[in-house]
């Protein structure tokens, strides 16, 4: 029996000239795939400083963590870009930290801080 797709959405916004991917709902494999579609388009346009905002995200499952790790590697290693991640509670931060997302990505406590980190 197939696992039902959990509701999610990703909104692409722009703040201070930086793309912000706002993750809503349940971040799993399907959300990671959608985030990658958006990311590929941004990277193709030369936008390599990116913010992920997980404030409206309820849960990140294991395939979602793997997806975030792959997205981080693509931005930071493949494109020598910068990624700031905000909106993480302690559990989400700990899981992503254990998965190796940090220190490749920068942790920000707010979207404003994420912008400051990427504008340096």
Can you describe what's shown?
It is a single chain. The chain is an alpha/beta fold. It has one domain: Transcription Regulator spoIIAA, CATH 3.30.750. It contains four helices and six strands; from the N terminus they run E-E-H-E-E-H-E-H-E-H. It has helices spanning 29-44, 62-78, 90-98, 111-119; strands at residues 8-15, 18-27, 49-53, 57-60, 82-86, 106-107. Strands 1, 2, 3, 4, 5 and 6 form a six-stranded mixed sheet that branches. The longest helix has 17 residues, at 62-78. The termini are far apart. The model has no long low-confidence stretch (mean pLDDT 94). Residues 8-118 form the STAS domain. InterPro entries: STAS_dom, STAS_dom_sf. This is STAS domain-containing protein.
Describe what is shown at a glance:
The chain is α/β, with parallel strands linked by helices and 120 residues long. 42% of the residues lie in helices and 28% in strands. It has one domain (8-119): 2-Layer Sandwich (Transcription Regulator spoIIAA).
User: Whole-Å distance between the termini?
Assistant: 49 Å
Order of helices and strands: EEHEEHEHEH
Number of domains: 1
| CATH-defined topology | Transcription Regulator spoIIAA
**Helical/strand content category:** alpha/beta
| Spatial shape | globular
- For the secondary structure, the number of strands is 6
**Largest sheet descriptor:** 6 strands, mixed
Q: For this entry, what is the oligomeric state of its chains?
A: single chain
- Tell me what the CATH architecture is: 2-Layer Sandwich
Uncertain residue segments: none
User: In percent terms, what proportion of residues is strand?
Assistant: 25-35%
The name of the CATH superfamily reads STAS domain
- Approximate helicity band: 40-55%
The first-level CATH class name: Alpha Beta
Mean pLDDT: 94
The helix tally amounts to 4
Supply Rg. 13 Å
């Amino acid at each position: 029996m197939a696992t039902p797709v959990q509701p999610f959405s990703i909104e692409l916004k722009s703040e201070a000239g930086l793309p912000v991917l706002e993750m809503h709902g349940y971040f799993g494999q399907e959300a990671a795939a959608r985030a990658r579609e958006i990311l590929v388009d941004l990277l193709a346009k030369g936008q390599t400083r990116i913010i992920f905002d997980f404030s409206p995200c309820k849960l990140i499952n294991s395939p979602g963590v793997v997806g975030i790790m792959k997205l981080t590697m693509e931005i930071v290693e493949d494109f020598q870009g910068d990624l700031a991640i905000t909106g993480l509670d302690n559990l989400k931060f700990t899981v992503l930290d254990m998965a190796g997302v940090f220190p490749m990505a920068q942790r920000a406590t707010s979207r404003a801080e994420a912008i400051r980190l990427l504008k340096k």
